[in-house]
Amino acid sequence: MRTYKHLVHTVCMRVLRHREDAEEATQDAFVKAFQNLHAFQGGSKLGTWLYSIAYRTALSKLRSRKPVMSTTEDVPAQFLATHSDDGTETQDRKRALEVALAELPEEDSTIVTLFYLHEQSVEEIVTITGLSASNVKVKLHRSRKRMHATLQHLLKTELWTIHTP
């Protein structure tokens, strides 16, 4: 649990975008994993299996709750409120990336997080999300374009230092 707690929580946070709900979904995901540990057959990595449980648990919670946010302007504030403000250029870039991720749809944000931040392969993301490989690749491509536009707006002159693949 110590090894995967942060990563599972990140998946839940990307889907739910609400700290308390993400913490609850993280706990629920670990409970489900423990209760179904006998069903894990080793066909994928343990982390991939846990991410899959976390992703589906978070999606279920998202579908069952009433909308918390009324506008997309609320999203960045929630993400930025969890970071300290030390005023450095690196911190500003991290905040801008969080804003860009927060403005993506939940599923797209989760896929980008899994692929780039947690270095999951497309095949592992397919296992976690249940989407097709081509759908994952399309979502990654479109998400990069959306994030680039958001970052261009947020960072303006600084954008030339950030390279998109």
What features would you describe in this structure?
By secondary structure, the chain is mainly alpha-helical. It has one domain. The chain has eight helices and no strands. The chain has helices at residues 5-16, 19-35, 46-64, 74-80, 89-102, 106-117, 122-129, 133-155. Helix 1 packs across helix 2 (19-35), helix 3 (46-64) crosses helix 7 (122-129) and helix 5 (89-102) crosses helix 8.
Summarize the structure.
The protein is mainly α. 68% of the residues lie in helices and 0% in strands.
Question: Secondary structure elements and their pairing?
Answer:
Elements: H1 5-16, H2 19-35, H3 46-64, H4 74-80, H5 89-102, H6 106-117, H7 122-129, H8 133-155
Task: Give a quick set of tags describing it.
165 residues; mainly alpha; 68% helix; globular
Number of helices: 8
Note the main sheet. Answer: none
Uncertain stretches: 68-85
Integer count of domains: 1
Multimerization status: single chain
Order of helices and strands: HHHHHHHH
Q: What would you call the structural class?
A: mainly alpha
Whole-Å distance between the termini?
33 Å
Beta-strand share of residues: under 5%
Report the strand count: 0
Principal-axis shape equals globular
Helix percentage: 55-70%
Rg of Cα set: 16 Å
- Average pLDDT, all residues: 81
